[in-house]
Amino acid sequence: MKLRSELGISLIEVAVATAILGATAALLCLTLLRVRELSTMAERLSRALVLAVNAIEQAHVGPTFTVCPREDGYQQSVDIRPFEDRPDLDEVVATIQWSGHSEQRLELRTLIYRPRSGGG
């Protein structure tokens, strides 16, 4: 009678090992695709954040400036208005919109202190 180690690997063992390897490879491919998608989303969000920060920095210079409404697939708008009942504060809202799988939007808000001349 031959020992088990001399008989070799059975066909069932090979089939099970192949199935496990295939399932692992499929999960790895799905994970890599998801990582790529998340990386693209993060890149677009980072670009939108840079555009919003640049728009707010321009608003610090003065209330009248121009923002390019479209840049590389991003729509930009900046709204500057007095903040509540404080005449020395302006609220600046920079909004950036872009499309990925769906419409995305980033809104960045800040207050800018601008002392008004002629007050008492």
Describe the protein.
A hairpin with a 3-residue loop joins strand 3 and strand 4 (103-113). The protein contains 2 helices and 4 strands. It has helices at residues 4-7, 11-61, and strands at residues 70-71, 74-83, 86-99, 103-113. The model has no long low-confidence stretch (mean pLDDT 86). Strands 1-2-3-4 form a 4-stranded antiparallel sheet, covered by helices on one side. The longest helix is centred in the N-terminal third of the chain and has 51 residues, at 11-61. The chain is an alpha+beta fold and 120 residues long.
Give the SSE map.
Elements: H1 4-7, H2 11-61, E1 70-71, E2 74-83, E3 86-99, E4 103-113
Antiparallel strand pairs: 1-2, 2-3, 3-4
Q: How many beta-strand segments?
A: 4
- What's the mean pLDDT score? 86
What is the CA-atom radius of gyration, in angstroms? 29 Å
Strand order of the largest sheet: 1-2-3-4
Nutshell version of this structure?
This protein has 2 helices and 4 strands; from the N terminus they run H-H-E-E-E-E.
